[in-house]
Every structure is written in C-alpha cells, then in structure tokens.
Amino acid sequence: MHIRRAAAPLCGLAALALLLSGCSGSDGDDARDPAASEQESPLQKYLNAAYGGDLSPEEQEEKYAEQQRQIEELVAQCMQDEGFEYTPATDSGAFYVGDDTEWKPDDREWVSQYGYGAVNSPFGSPFDSEPVPEEEYVDPNADYVASLSESEQMAFYEALYGVPPEEEEMSEEGQYEYDWTQAGCQGAAQHEVAGEDPSQSEEFKPLFDAINDLYSDHSSWPGMAELDAEWASCMEDAGQGGHASPMEAQNSIHEEMNKLYESVGMPEEDATAAPEPDRAATEALAEREVELALADLDCREEIDYGDRQAEITRTVEQRFIDDHKAELDAMVASVEQN
Which of 210, 211, 218 is closest to 247 using CA atoms? Predict the structure, then answer.
C-alpha cells in the first residue's frame, strides 16, 4: 500500500512567490538589503504576505515545525474519535535551503563548473557512488498499522487522508483538485492550523486565476520579444543559436537529461536501485550544458538582460496591481486575520 506523508498542498501560486524572487535581476545575495528591496517584484510582496515568503529560511522552518506539531496533535485526537490509535509524528520532514547553499547560476565560476545545474550540481551527479545521505523517516505508526488487517489498514488510511479520488476525478497528469473537507483527519487539521490556501478560496480564486493568466505567456509582455530577440542574436553569434529565450535554453538541457533517464529501465539485479543513464551520453550533455550556459551568461551580461527583464516585469506587475489593488489588499488582510 502506498503511504503518503502528510504535507500541506502547494499550489502553483505558492511556488510563484519563489519564481518572482528571480525577477529582480539580483544575484540573491542582497535579498534582505534595503537597496535590493527596491528592485523586488511588486507582486512578490503580496504573495510573500500570503505564503510567508517574507520570513527567513530559519523562521519558515520554525513556523512550519510549530504548525506540524499542532496539526499532529489534532490528527491524533481526530483519529482517536474515528476509533484508531495514532501517535503524533515528531519529525516534520521539513527542509529548507540555507544561506550557505552554493546555487549561483549567475556566477561565472559556478556556471563554468555546473552550467545550469541540470546534469551536475553542488548536490551531486547521476554517478555519485556515495550520494549525500538523507535522514530516514521513521513512521511512529508503522507497527500499529502493521498489526491491523488489510481492511482495517484501508479504513485507517481513509480516516487519515480521506478516500482516494476516482479515476475520472484525475487529470491526464494524474492530479486532482484538492478539497480539505475530503482529505480526512489530515485535511481537517491542516485547515484548522494553517487556514485555507487563499488561491483555493472561493473569494480569492478569481484573483489567483488572473495572476496565473498574467504569467501564462510572459514572452508577450511589452518589450520582452525585443529583449529575447537581442539575446537570441547574441547566442547565434556565439555559435549557440536555436533558442528563443534563456529559459528555453535552460529547459532544453533538462529535457535532454530527462530523455536520457527515460531511455533506461530499472536495473534487473536490484529493483530498488535508481537507474543510471548512459555515462558517455551524460558526460557529453554536461559539456554541452556548460558551453551553452556560459554563452547564455555572456549574452545576458552583454545586453543587460536581467535588469531590463526586471524593469519589464515591474511595469507589467504594477499595471496588474493598479487594476486589482482592492482584491490584493483584501487577500492580504484576510491572511493576516487568520
């Protein structure tokens, strides 16, 4: 039986708060510098308020850990009411990237070593014999669940997580629309402690749909086509043509890497082992990645791509804010009240 770890659902707009942080043209080191804050994405300020992005990684970790403690206590009481034993999990499973993480896609030395970080990265390569060890999660309820019959186990997980969605409720990508009222004791506890995701609320969903629409085709924003054309021309001159934008260039490497993994099956000797792509093909891709990423970096620096893109983004977002300020302010006020 597939066992899911409890986790609050993350919608696309929650992740967008992180995406927008890359629109400032900053290298990330000045994220809390007052001068750098003037370059912050206007919409990011609202999304930070909605999703806690204005907290430091340590503050986010502390907040998440406290929320998980409260959630687990509520889950335990709920499961007891449903007739089951349940031991609150003390391990939150939380993870954050600290300030010392070496992820510097705009640093020439870093790019010379990792490119975009698709094949090789500071976190390892596909052929590391000794990957960075991860702390194994121990489910405190595993022994109790194992003592139950198969039907009792099914009832336990349905009480904990809700009844799994029917096939017709799933999208082609295997996703479905989350509804906390149908997510068992975990859904109820998460909703009580963390509140409703504003992007999923009936009141603010239209606002977040509008934000999604805004970013569905940012290449159509005024000035972006010309900026990308300058970049593409520079890349052509550098012998790295064929990509319409920096994002397309980066995605091309990730797509090639995915194809290498898709071309291999699971090892016959050990079904639990992770498949390894062809070493020669992977090493060749890593070399191409670095060459492409360095040319990309050169061209972005040559035409001042980051700052110009940031200015276009701020202009477009400010126009959106002017048109939706009442809804945005109401959303922030609602989150703060909760």
Answer: 218
Can you tell me the distance from the alpha carbon of 188 to that of 198, in angstroms, rounded to the nearest whole number? 16
Distance in angstroms (rounded) separating the CA atoms of residues 118 and 277: 13
State the DSSP H helix or E strand holding residue 310, giving kind and residue range, or none if neither. Answer: helix 305-337
| pTM to 2 decimal places | 0.66
Average pLDDT over residues 161-167: 87
Range 143-162 average pLDDT: 96
DSSP assigned state of 173: T
Residue 200 CB neighbour total at 10 angstroms: 16
Give me the DSSP letters along 218-254.
Answer: GGGSTTHHHHHHHHHHHHHHTT--S-SSHHHHHHHHH
Closest listed residue to residue 13, CA positions, set 143, 151, 238, 207 = 207
Residue 124 forms beta bridges with which residues? 121
Tell me the per-residue pLDDT of 279-291, one tens digit each, with 9 for 90 and over: 999 999 999 999 9
The predicted structure's pLDDT at residue 173: 61
For residue 176, give every residue at least 6 positions away whose Cβ sits within 8 Å of its Cβ, in sequence order, or none: 165, 169, 170
Tally of CB atoms within 10 A around 195: 13
Q: Is the Cβ–Cβ distance between 254 and 248 less than 8 Å?
A: no
Q: Would the pLDDT of 81 be above 90?
A: yes
| Residues 279, 259: Cα–Cα separation, whole Å | 13
